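Table S2 (text version). Query chain:
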Amino acid sequence: MDTELTQRKIFYFWLPLAATWFMMSIEGPFLSALIARLPDPKFNLAAYGVAFSFALVIEAPVIMMLSAATTLVRNSQSYFSLRKFNWLLIGLLTLLMIILVIPAIFYFIAEDLVGLPKEVSHLTHLSLIFMIPWPGAIGFRRFYQGILIRNNLTRRVAYGTTIRILTIVLSALILFFATNLPGALVGAASLSIAVVFEAIATRFMAAKIVQQIKAGVQLHSSEYDINQKQIFSFYLPLALTSLLTLGVQPFVTFFIGQSRSPIESLAIMPVVTSFVFIFRGLGLSFQEVVVALLGDQRKGYDQLKIFAIRLASILAGILIIIAFTPLSEFWFKGVSGLTDYLADLASEPLMIMSFFPALTVFICFQRGALVSVKDTKPITFGTAIEFITIIVALFIAIKYFSAVGAIAATISFVLGRIAANIYLIRPFRRAIKQ
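Corresponding structure-token output:
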């Protein structure tokens, strides 16, 4: 930024992005609450959670398109180059989604490899069919959101997410009251409809900026041409990072299936993780803030550091208060609609995850600084360490301590994130000094 960075400026830049993530984060608890109030909630919650995990894995390579567009799209040439790259990527991911739902392939993975019970695997398969548009819509949306963020139009990103949430609520309630669809399918169909509407809305809101870019209007001070090879070199570590981050979910599902109380654990995991994601999402929004505001010669570092510490303390503090007081029981029973047994089972995993939002803020600060200097490889290595730590911790907790699946999983998530935070300390410091 041309003017001196202040906490106030960071806050107002971050706020629309935070609102975007917050609105996205409440869709999970909302859908879980509806599913819990439909027939066979245990099987449907489990199937919805597994289907969402599979969809996230397929979607993973395109998630970082937001950071890529924020960093790389600075003129017409870079716009067209990255747009071409994005179209190829989302076309490939959509094809993979279609291949995944082929019955012979899906049931081999779901039942033979992952070990899902037939009641859960069938519902998961149907849910994934509803989610075929998911990766394409996400990739399309995040490309244009990155352009909006790059041009300081973060409020429009929030407007698009508002459309998504309203669409989810409306479509889910219609399916809830007017159809006999199983709960897992209600959740999957609502998500797909909503992301398609949001993608279309985001494209319309970016139309003026895109028109200026195509006309050759220089929106930034210098030329920035980039070819497909350079985009691939920049993007590959980011894609691998997302793939490792979200690709761990099927492994977690597999290990939970071998643990104590497997169905119950699969049922409560989407409820616990979606609630934690409300707070994590506010931290995840900080990465694009760092990418956009760190500035030349890292002039914004000191102010961003103060903001990060404050944000981490507030988010973790609120979640800790909820997790260790009767407020958690109110959420799980009164809001999420869990039975007394499932609500009691969910309380301890929430306690374990209560300070996870702080770790999220710190890793987003680290990753944002590395993306801003185009040093993306350490991000991948850090995520690989997180992935390995989660798998090893899960194996030990379930194999040698016979832990309940949900407890083993949440402990593993925390240990994995701490390991990644520690690894990124040195690359982060190097990036700040550049």
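Notes on Table S2: The chain has 20 helices and no strands. The mean pLDDT is 90.
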